[in-house]
Automatic annotation (TrEMBL):
It holds the Pfam family SAM_Ribosomal_mS41. The keyword Mitochondrion applies. This is Small ribosomal subunit protein mS41. Residues 47-103 form the Small ribosomal subunit protein mS41 SAM domain. Its main location: mitochondrion. It comes from the Eukaryota. Belongs to the mitochondrion-specific ribosomal protein mS41 family. The keyword DNA-binding does not apply. GO terms for cellular component: mitochondrion.
Length: 225
């Protein structure tokens, strides 16, 4: 009596089937999505002004980005090809572009009235006359009437005393008639910290070498004594 033979199905019958549509979907999903391009704000209406307020010498690269879109669509490799060095400068710029996309802007980023790089601030009162807020007004205009809500006030600026306005880069006007904020180099810059013992990455090595040098000096001093 012959033993029963096992019938092995063809490989095509047991292999998982992946449709062409699914393959296309997977390839499409694997591609990096194009980052969103935010709109300019009145304080920084163009690339040169944005690079100016970010500081760290980025203004010298303004000509590398002829349009707003070209700046916000560039990645680290493209910036390197454009000659933006050193790498930490590229990282700083890319980090700030992402912050801009998220709406995390620096002083004056919420101003609505800016002309020739200058914004004017006035003190306004609420309808209940119980609070004073700082608002941004067009040049030459007064803060007439009460503010309707907190959305009208600008972030980072406060009223001190009767009518003094304090905040980043706020310059008082004559006779206490409000304040002016002017676009200046580095007004949004994140200041670099001072490296201690070679910085975070080299601190252990540098301190180890210092201890060895100190120990050698102590031994040498004891021998001389």
């Amino acid at each position: 009596m012959k033993a029963p033979q096992l019938r092995i199905p063809p490989l095509s019958a047991i292999a998982p089937r992946v449709s062409t549509v699914n393959n296309c979907q997977l390839r499409w999903a694997s591609k990096r999505a194009t980052p969103a391009i935010p709109q300019p704000v009145p304080l920084v209406p163009d690339v040169p002004t944005l690079l100016k307020v970010l500081g760290r010498g980025l203004s010298q690269y303004a000509e590398k980005f002829p349009t707003w879109n070209s700046l916000f669509t560039s990645d680290s490799t493209q910036m390197k090809e454009l000659g933006i060095e050193p790498p930490r400068t590229r990282r700083y710029l890319l980090a700030w572009l992402e912050r801009y996309r998220q709406g995390a802007l620096g002083p004056g980023g919420d101003f609505k009235h800016v002309e020739n790089g200058e914004a004017y601030l006035q003190v306004a009162t609420t309808e209940a006359q119980d609070r004073k807020w700082v608002i941004n007004v067009p040049a030459g205009q007064k803060a007439d009437g009460a503010v309707q809500g907190p959305d009208e006030r600008v972030r980072g600026y406060q009223v001190r005393g009767a009518s003094a306005i304090t905040g980043p880069y706020a310059l008082p006007l004559k006779a206490g008639d409000g304040a002016k904020v002017q676009v200046v180099e580095g007004m949004w810059e994140h200041r670099q910290g001072i490296k201690v013992d070679g910085g975070e990455r080299r601190r252990t090595e540098v301190r180890y070498k210092k201890r060895i040098a100190q120990r050698k000096a102590e031994i040498e001093a004891s021998r001389r004594g």
